[in-house]
Amino acid sequence: MSNPGSFDARYVSRSSDCMYRIYAQADELYFINLGGLSTTAHVLTSQLGLIGVLIGSAMKKRAKRQAETLLQRAEGQDLELLLRENKTNFKVFIPEITEAAVEPPSFFAMRGKQAGRWNFNLRDGKKHKFEFENTEAMQAALDLLSRPLNGTLRVNVEWNEPKKKFQKKKAPY
């Protein structure tokens, strides 16, 4: 679970399966890698049948424990210090974001069930794609990002109370 001023999202990439804790502080977003499995590990475990499922489950439990340990240690620590602990940690200067959108879940999810997606582009052409694993993380992201990304963030989702999930925003009539 994320703290006020932060949320969790999974980085969508062909080479990794990493969860990030994203913190907003002043005019910067800090992305702290919580760990995960490489795509190679996913492929290898899927090729090993039942044994692969058992190995994959053990690897996921280990990654989850490591993430919990990191978060406990990181509480109250300076975000600049956290950036230096892992080469995949990074920060983004908010004015460098040229376009951002929160979208409903994609029909074909790369890493299983998701509540929605957050995509953004930077001035230098880099594109970042994240998935939210649950509605709480997505709501925390919407609450946190709406003010700093005021003119840049497109929110293409709305809450569907009967279904208890986010869905694509309906076009105005």
- Listing every helix as H and every strand as E from the N terminus to the C terminus, the arrangement reads EEEHHHEEEEHEEE
Low-confidence stretches: none
Amount of beta strand: 35-45%
Percent of residues in helices? 25-40%
Rg over CA atoms = 17 Å
Instruction: Provide the residue-averaged pLDDT.
Output: 80
Total domain count? 1
Structural class category: alpha+beta
Short description:
The chain is of the alpha+beta class. Helix content is 29%, strand content 36%.
Characterise the protein shown here.
By secondary structure, the chain is an alpha+beta fold. The protein has a single domain, classed as Pleckstrin-homology domain (PH domain)/Phosphotyrosine-binding domain (PTB) (PH-domain like, Roll), CATH 2.30.29. Helices cover 29% and strands 36% of the residues. Helix 1 packs antiparallel against helix 2. The mean pLDDT is 80.
Name its key features.
173 residues, 4 helices, eight-stranded mixed beta sheet, alpha+beta, PH-domain like
Helix and strand layout, with pairings?
Layout lengths: L5 E7 L3 E10 L2 E11 H9 L1 H26 L4 H5 L6 E4 L3 E7 L12 E7 L4 E6 L2 H11 L7 E3 L1 E4 L4 E4 L5
Parallel strand pairs: 5-8
Antiparallel strand pairs: 1-2, 1-7, 2-3, 3-4, 5-6, 6-7, 9-10
